[in-house]
Amino acid sequence: LPGPFTDVVTTNLKLRNPSDRKVCFKVKTTAPRRYCVRPNSGIIDPGSSVIVSVMLQPFDYDPNEKSKHKFMVQTTYAPPNISDMEAVWKEAKPDELMDSKLRCVFEMPNENDKLNDIDASKATPVLNTSKQDGPLPKSHSVSLNDTETRKLMEECKRLQAEIMKLTDENRHLRDEGLRLRKVTHSEKPGSPTALALRDNGSNSLPSLLVVIAAIFIGFFLGKFIL
């Protein structure tokens, strides 16, 4: 079992059944409070294997203290019909039981490994700091660009609305001009009504020029923004 033992240390135990019969197994330890074994019992089919996880709980390791922790894997051939595993072990005869004993060995990492871990832990905050310091100005500039873009888009929408409004007014003035021309042709050229209508037509020309200029300005402004 490799240290340090400040966290749970897990090692795997592989059990293989080389026989042609089913085998029941059970894992025992001399320190049941220190270990968690999963699974601690079960059945292995002929020619199959099972992985048993042995998890050592955290404890204060003393290198001067010799390990006295031991494990024993006990096995027996499974009866034809198994209904109760506890009954199988109670009814098994001593000559039908087989066992293998294992002694736990604790290994602490070398001093060089400790130094490498310390250097890595010292270097990690510096790397994280550099990563955190870098993106901040970039994210700030991105937020400013988003704000400016949002303002420009709103201004573009407002100008487009103005262009649509001016287009409607231009269409209305054009229809009004056509109506006035029809009325003018129906009247005599020298009559006061014709003169008044001609004056109205001439007065509408500056409005048409303003509308056309506004449309071109809005079109080019929209192209520039987008």
Automatic annotation (TrEMBL):
It is a single-pass type IV membrane protein. The chain crosses the membrane at residues 205-225. Residues 114-147 are annotated as: Disordered. This is Vesicle-associated membrane protein-associated protein A. Residues 1-107 form the MSP domain. Residues 149-176 form a coiled coil. InterPro entries: Ig-like_fold, MSP_dom, PapD-like_sf, VAP. One of its GO terms (molecular function) is FFAT motif binding. Its main location: other. The gene is Vapa.
